[in-house]
């Protein structure tokens, strides 16, 4: 018998996108997909949108508690053996579930697929998410050696219920934001993770996303750094359970973390969260991490290495445009977009 599937949509004040997300979940070609829609205390028209779908979906209406609480509520209300978490501003293609289930097998805990990036109106932006190439070798080894791996957020992944049951409920206070980081980091240690090299959905980039910015926000950069601290804390807490040893310099192996850290130090040193950081120390660590990153193309390794050196050396007035071109899609020329995704 084929495994049962649940698509859990978590929503907070994204009523303008929610209907399209629900329609994409209901349009799946795989038979019998359960669609659970969690509204986390929205104050816009989200609940009116949910009501329009009647008994075609299972609504979970709760007071606002953050994304982790919404994921926990959706998981508790669902019944599927395979779980797709769909952000309410994203979309799944009609064959997304069917394609994932073609490769699903016992022992698999996660299947990841590609997403096309679209804008707020749904027009393609000409890029895919994640931009980096597939991981080489065992994903668990890559996480420990690189501090990260190419991944989407919750959209773009299918998870085994049995594995999620070991990690959930997600700690709601600690992971009120970015709970996908917790799940995506830890679940590969529970079984086999697969990369499906197919575009099976859309990631909507509209400026209010957790992972993308249209205008440079130093507060968002510091929030990302705090998220990295939480990831390391969670991994170390689970290390004995997983039977792994986490390197002492684990975060300093991650070129994306080091890029964010150097940007924060150069542009707002007074509020930078790490008093011991020095720009040339971060630059050296960044160059080393970038050149060793097995999921980066050769061109991207070179770009990152040069970025670290130039951003460390440049006056603040020059460093800021370097930070902007790296973090803001709107500042990137076509050649740059093709280079770094």
The gist of it:
With about 350 residues, the chain is of the alpha/beta class. The chain contains 13 helices and nine strands. It starts with a strand and ends with a helix.
Description of the molecule:
There is one protein chain. Strands 1, 2, 3, 4, 5, 6, 7, 8 and 9 form a 9-stranded mixed sheet that branches. The protein contains 13 helices and 9 strands. Helix 10 (279-292) packs antiparallel against helix 11 (298-313). It has helices at residues 15-26, 46-51, 67-77, 96-103, 139-146, 161-167, 179-186, 218-242, 255-267, 279-292, 298-313, 316-327, 334-340; strands at 5-11, 34-40, 58-62, 82-87, 91-92, 108-118, 124-129, 157-160, 192-204.
Strand-helix topology:
Blueprint: E1 5-11, H1 15-26, E2 34-40, H2 46-51, E3 58-62, H3 67-77, E4 82-87, E5 91-92, H4 96-103, E6 108-118, E7 124-129, H5 139-146, E8 157-160, H6 161-167, H7 179-186, E9 192-204, H8 218-242, H9 255-267, H10 279-292, H11 298-313, H12 316-327, H13 334-340
Parallel strand pairs: 1-2, 1-4, 2-3, 6-9
Antiparallel strand pairs: 4-8, 5-9, 6-7, 6-8
Helix pairs in contact: 7-8, 8-9, 9-10, 9-11, 10-11, 11-12
Comma- or semicolon-separated keywords:
341 residues, alpha/beta, nine-stranded mixed beta sheet, 9 strands, 18% strand
Describe the oligomeric state of these chains in a short phrase. single chain
CATH topology of the largest domain: Spore Coat Polysaccharide Biosynthesis Protein SpsA, Chain A
Low-pLDDT stretches? none
Total strand segments: 9
Number of domains: 2
Q: From the coordinates shown, what is the CATH architecture of the largest domain?
A: Alpha-Beta Complex
């Amino acid at each position: 018998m084929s495994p049962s599937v649940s698509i859990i949509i978590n929503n907070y004040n994204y009523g303008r996108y929610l209907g399209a997300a629900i329609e994409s979940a209901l349009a799946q070609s795989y038979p019998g997909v359960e669609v659970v829609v969690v509204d986390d205390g929205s104050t816009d028209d989200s609940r009116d949108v949910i009501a329009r779908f009647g008994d075609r979906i299972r609504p979970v209406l709760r007071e606002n508690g953050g994304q982790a609480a919404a994921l926990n509520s959706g998981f508790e209300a669902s019944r599927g053996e395979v779980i797709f978490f769909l952000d309410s501003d994203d979309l799944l293609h009609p064959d997304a579930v069917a394609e994932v289930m073609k490769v699903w097998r016992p022992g698999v805990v996660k299947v990841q697929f590609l997403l096309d990036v679209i804008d707020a109106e749904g027009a393609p932006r000409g890029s895919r998410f994640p931009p980096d190439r597939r991981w080489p070798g065992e994903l668990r080894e890559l996480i420990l050696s690189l501090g990260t791996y190419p991944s989407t957020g919750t959209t773009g992944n299918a998870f085994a219920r049995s594995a999620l049951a070991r990690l959930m409920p997600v700690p709601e206070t600690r992971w009120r934001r970015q709970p996908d980081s917790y799940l995506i980091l830890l679940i590969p240690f529970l079984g086999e993770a697969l990369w499906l090299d197919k575009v099976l959905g859309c990631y909507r980039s509209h400026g209010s996303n957790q992972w993308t910015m249209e205008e440079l926000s130093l507060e968002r950069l510091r929030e990302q750094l705090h998220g990295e601290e939480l990831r390391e804390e969670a991994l170390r807490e689970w290390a004995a359970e997983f039977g792994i040893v986490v390197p002492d310099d684990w975060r300093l192996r991650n070129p994306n973390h080091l890029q964010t850290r150097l940007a924060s130090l150069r542009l707002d040193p007074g509020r930078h969260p790490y008093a011991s950081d020095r720009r040339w120390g971060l630059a050296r660590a960044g160059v080393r991490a970038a050149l060793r990153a097995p999921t980066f193309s050769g061109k991207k390794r070179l770009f990152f290495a040069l970025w670290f050196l130039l951003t460390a050396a440049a006056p603040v007035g020059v460093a800021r445009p370097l930070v902007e071109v790296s973090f803001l899609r709107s500042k990137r020329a076509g050649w740059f977009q093709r280079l770094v995704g």
